[in-house]
């Protein structure tokens, strides 16, 4: 080989090596990090402590453990704690927990619980139908398109929000828990959802193939109905069949027997809560990534084909608090959702930004605000609970709040979670308030043409 050729090869190799090194970490850099780390003796102390213990135990604020009490000046009359078990149905439990106090009060009951399993059956059924309809609608797009990838990523989940509940109760009504009780798979939804997703993804590929081969809309619709028959079968085997009609009577807390009556689920819902109009409830959100006092809608964010999408008014936290306080004073619980995993001390049932001092534990600062946490996917709504209480100072300004949770009575403080007003500012995202507690200027926002947002936006993870 000629010397000139060897020189060219060497130069090219050096150039390639230089490119490969751009942005990489050299051994010399690592050595500098090693020396810097060991030069600070506090790092050694922290390493010994954190590596041998839970970081939450190390960061736990001793100060926040003292003086914790769960008393509130204003509180909705609620009874009993529900348990969603190992499922993502918090939104469903929460929605039913918002309306059940009205039933308990109306019929003078010691306790009452709706069947979550009944609505969960229809939620999964309707989500499967919506998924298949969307697959047909987007069959002309590449399977790797963003919309198709969003559809296929989680075709049928068990999460949801308030509009998911209203879509279901409007169409399928309500039944008491004793009429359609929980099953093993309603309380442990993981494997059922895995099998259901597997089947509907298979159906999706079949429908795409039919569409691409020129199948007519009637043929696609006919095949989809056959597929939905399979979905119904899978759900019935896991959850039992929903009742078409049932007999029921209320028993008062004094043991007085009511009249046994026959109902369809739709008749039961209308009979026990005839004054309830679910269209009178408005979702308010605090999303600092977008302009306030605007109406927004999330594209295709619903569970029923003919149902309503997730729609909300974006407001500052101060407004959310004002209307939430009015609702609590009016003895009306609210659907609410938040990032429950942030700064949660479940042992004492308290959510507080000062519960855990991770900055002192690590010796570093965490500087993101709420907006930055949303944009970076660090924070978002993860859980729905009923907002039922608020404590205030002498000026009637909120100091702390309380959720009725659905993790059972052994979780938190006897099933409840209290949270400070500062935690509300950082990690509360939405509340659903009845129109009667909202001023005219807020209600007028509902007349705006909503800004349509994509379903994969980081702010719109469903509650689980």
TrEMBL record:
Presence of the UniProt keyword Signal in the record: yes
List of catalytic residues: 90, 383, 405
Gene3D superfamilies: Cysteine proteinases (3.90.70.10)
InterPro entries per UniProt: Papain-like_cys_pep_sf, Pept_cys_AS, Peptidase_C1B
Regions crossing the membrane: none
GO molecular function terms noted in the UniProt entry: cysteine-type aminopeptidase activity
Record Pfam families: Peptidase_C1_2
Signal peptide: 1-20
GO cellular component, one term: cytoplasm
Family the entry assigns: Belongs to the peptidase C1 family.
Protein name: Aminopeptidase
Organism (species): Salinivirga cyanobacteriivorans
Taxonomy of the source species: Bacteria, Pseudomonadati, Bacteroidota, Bacteroidia, Bacteroidales
Gene responsible for this protein: pepC_1
